[in-house]
Every structure is written in structure tokens, then in C-alpha cells.
Design a protein that fits this description.
Pfam family, one: ManC_GMP_beta-helix
EC number: 2.7.7.13
Largest sheet: 11 strands, mixed
Enzyme class: transferase
Radius of gyration: 24 Å
Structural class: alpha+beta
Distance between the termini: 37 Å
CATH superfamily of the largest domain: Spore Coat Polysaccharide Biosynthesis Protein SpsA, Chain A
Catalytic activity: alpha-D-mannose 1-phosphate + GTP + H(+) = GDP-alpha-D-mannose + diphosphate
CATH topology of the largest domain: Spore Coat Polysaccharide Biosynthesis Protein SpsA, Chain A
Helix content: 10-25%
Protein name: mannose-1-phosphate guanylyltransferase
């Protein structure tokens, strides 16, 4: 069985902890492990391998976190742009044998009752072997308006329902045969593709073209022009609500999608006044209770509990002004390591760059800026024009605009440098790549 892990989404409701380039599934929230890592650990007892469907900007975060778990039997499909879950799952299934059982799971959910989880997974597998598409319905614990619902009679699905108003959610909760839609599925790859072809032919055909045209090496990379031609739709709309082969497994597995700070506050320690405080510094509160306080290096969020759903509106407002606070942390993660912008002003920018052992940046040049590199720790291998040389701590070099260059860490310890950029423009898009180990086209 293959675990298809869906790693899309930006996690806007957990801003400012979660950003587009570092969404909630990769944040280390639980015993220094991320929801993504917990997903992998939870499912490796049932699945032989992971097939991770990810945005091209995020897959290296998955690689790093899988290395920590010593998971080596993983493969990747990289989407240049998200088109919702139906195309993502279709592309994944097209890469597998038709009789392969797939367990489709989001990467950002929390499940605490492992014994019950194992039970419902095994129950689902029995239906899958009989040719059914299986979804998992979560036994509701309160009237939630933020989830879709599945109406069922035993294992038979009667109807799927959209996110309800509170009065309707209360009726669903009291009704006894309504379940939260978990977004988890199990089926044979070929059965799903046949049902997709039957009920959403356009998505099937365009996904097939995209898969056939994809670059297939160690990683399957979908081309942008093919991905954009796929209709955007969820697996629920495209298949599950139309197929007559669907079964539901009622699941009491202590599940949470950790979709906002209200739900996160139920999973993390609160102070004596029921405040959830996440900060790298000491925070003192006087005569206040039931608050959510999220403090990062570049943003502060203060909210009353019960209002956490409104965080999305803050993010939407920031996006109107093209504010990088919605997409980037002050620490930016790259396949080769990280960089932190220490200061950014007219005519100059100062960064701290950390390069992992054995990694290197692209061979590149800039048109609008000069760069000064100073080694703080580690040993830097520098390519500058036709020359290649070593820099040790407290040594530096200067790179003129237009000069071909590369930074590399051939040592066993992390390399840390300070980069001072000086020029008329210091944006991340002022870069021409000549060679790149990670097949990227833009940004450093």
C-alpha cells in the first residue's frame, strides 16, 4: 500500500506561524516534530512507501524532514501550481500500478487514537479489496461549521454536505449519522482513475496529458503549461459525490485538522488564564484571559479565543498590498539551507546564509547588485569567474555585478556567511542561473 501524502495548501489560518513558503504541516509543533513527520510515522505501519505530492517550492522541506526520520523509500510529484485534490491524486495514481492500494492523507492533520486508527484503516482495506472507494468520516464532538459533513447509514453514504450554518451543524451533531469529512481516502489506483474518467473526463484527460509530458527522473515534475490546463476541483466534487462505489468508515480516532489557533490551543499547553502563547521571548500578561498570542520575528498576532477563524481576513488584507509577510518568514528555506534577511533598505541588503554540508547554491550571476561574502564559520568553496578557491572563517571575497559565481559547502560542518548586497536593485528575481542542482528556474 502506498501512502499518497498531499502537501499543498498555505495554512493561512495559522499565520504568522504558517506562511506560503513554510506552511503549517512543516512547523514543529509537537515534541519538536511536524504534522508532516507525524503523518509519515503514523502511516508507515500500513504503507510500504510514501508518494508525496507537493508544490515545487516546498518539496525540499519534506526531504529534510524525511531525512530526520531516516525514511528513504519516498517518491515525489511536484506541481508548479495547485489545482486542488482531484488532479493531485490523479497524477499520483497514474504513477502507480492499477492494482496498488493507495491511502490518501493530508499532511497536516493530528490523530491521537492510534489503536482505533489502525482498526479503521484495516476495515477500509477490506472494502477496497472489493473494489470500493473509501472515505473516512470523523465522529463529531461538537457542532463544527468549518467542516463538510458526510451523511451515512452504516457504511453506505447517503449524501455529502457543504460546510453548514451553526443551526444546521447542531442538527448534524445531534442526528447521530453525520460525520466530519476528514479528507482521507483509500482505493485502488486503477479504480479511482476509472471513476474519475467516468465522472470528470476533462480532469482525467488533462491530467493524463500532464503526466505523460512530465519530466520523470528521480522526481516527477509536472510542466506549468500542462498543470494550468487541468480544471481545478476537489476529489469530493469530481468523484466521491457522484460515484456509486463509495463507502464511509465512521472513525472515532481523536482527529483534528489543526485548522486554526482555537483548535491548536486544544492540543498545546495554555497558561493559568487559558491563554495560548507561542513566542521565542518571555511574554507577561496582566488581567487578561482566553487570548491567543503568536509572536514571530517579524509579526505579532493577538486574538480572543473563538475569533481565530478571522485570521484569514488579516492574511487577505496583507495580500492586497503584496506583503511578503503572508508568504515568507524572516528565515527563508532553500534546498541548500537557509538565509535570513538581517536588513533590507534602499540600495543594500544584508543576509546571513547557512549552507548544509555537501550542498551548494546555483552557478549564477546578477545584473543589478554587487555582493560581499564574509565567512563566519565553516569552510566555503567559492567559484568566481574561472577561479575556484577556499575561504576560511574571517575571510572574505567580492563579487562584481555580472560576474559568474557559486557558493559551496564541501565540508562536514554547516557553512555560515554574511552576504552584503549593494546595488540599485536587490530583489530575489535579479538572478540568472547557469547550473542548478535542484532544477529551479528562479529565486536563490
Amino acid at each position: 500500500m502506498t501512502n499518497i501524502i498531499l502537501c499543498g495548501g498555505s495554512g493561512t489560518r495559522l499565520w504568522p506561524m504558517s506562511r506560503t513558503l513554510f506552511p503549517k504541516q512543516f512547523i514543529r509543533l509537537f515534541d519538536n516534530k511536524s504534522l508532516f513527520q507525524l503523518t509519515v510515522e503514523r502511516n508507515k505501519f500500513f504503507c510500504d512507501k510514501e508518494l508525496i505530492v507537493s508544490n515545487a517550492e516546498q518539496y525540499f522541506l519534506a526531504i529534510d524532514q524525511l531525512e530526520e526520520l531516516k525514511e528513504e523509500n519516498s517518491s515525489y510529484i511536484l506541481e508548479p501550481i495547485g489545482r486542488n485534490t482531484a488532479p493531485a491524486i490523479a497524477l499520483a495514481c497514474m504513477s502507480l500500478e492499477k492494482d496498488e492500494i493507495v491511502f490518501v492523507t493530508p499532511s497536516d492533520h493530528l490523530i491521537k487514537n492510534k489503536k482505533e486508527y489502525e482498526k479503521v484503516v484495516q476495515e477500509a482495506k477490506e472494502f477496497v479489496n472489493d473494489g470500493f472507494l473509501v472515505t473516512f468520516g470523523i465522529t463529531p464532538t461538537f457542532a463544527e461549521t468549518g467542516y463538510g459533513y458526510i451523511e451515512a447509514l452504516g457504511n453506505d453514504v447517503k449524501a455529502f454536505h457543504e460546510k453548514p450554518e451553526y443551526e444546521t451543524a447542531q442538527k448534524y451533531f445531534e442526528g447521530g449519522n453525520y460525520y466530519w469529512n476528514s479528507g482521507m481516502f483509500m482505493f485502488k489506483a486503477g479504480v479511482f482513475l476509472e471513476e474519475l474518467k467516468k465522472y470528470s473526463l476533462s480532469i482525467y484527460q488533462s491530467s493524463k496529458i500532464a503526466f505523460e509530458n512530465a519530466k520523470k527522473e528521480n522526481i516527477i515534475r509536472i510542466k506549468y503549461e500542462d498543470m494550468i490546463n487541468i480544471n481545478e476541483d476537489s476529489i469530493d466534487y469530481a468523484v466521491m459525490e457522484k460515484s456509486d462505489k463509495v463507502k464511509v468508515i465512521p472513525s472515532n480516532i481523536e482527529w483534528s485538522d489543526v485548522g486554526n489557533f482555537d483548535s491548536l490551543s486544544n492540543e498545546l499547553p495554555n497558561d493559568e488564564n487559558n491563554n495560548l502563547i507561542i513566542s521565542n521571548k518571555h511574554v507577561s500578561i496582566i488581567d487578561l484571559k482566553d487570548l491567543i498570542i503568536i509572536d514571530t520575528n517579524d509579526a505579532l498576532l493577538v486574538s480572543k479565543k473563538g475569533s481565530a477563524q478571522k485570521v484569514k481576513s488579516i492574511v487577505d488584507n496583507l495580500k492586497l498590498y503584496n506583503n511578503k509577510l503572508t508568504s515568507e518568514h524572516s528565515i527563508i528555506y532553500r534546498p541548500w539551507g537557509t538565509y535570513t534577511v538581517l536588513e533590507d533598505s534602499n540600495g543594500y541588503k544584508i543576509k546571513k546564509i547557512c549552507v548544509k554540508s555537501g550542498s551548494r547554491l546555483s552557478l549564477q550571476k546578477h545584473f543589478h547588485r554587487n555582493e560581499h561574502w564574509i565567512v563566519l564559520s565553516g569552510c566555503a568553496t567559492i567559484t568566481k569567474g574561472s577561479k575556484k578557491f577556499i575561504l576560511n572563517p574571517n575571510e572574505s571575497t567580492y563579487i562584481k555585478a555580472g560576474q559568474l559565481h557559486r557558493l559551496e559547502n564541501e565540508g562536514k560542518l554547516p557553512l555560515v556567511i554574511i552576504e552584503a548586497q549593494v546595488g540599485e536593485y536587490t530583489g530575489e528575481d535579479d538572478i540568472i542561473r547557469i547550473e542548478d542542482d535542484f532544477c529551479r528556474e528562479d529565486s536563490k
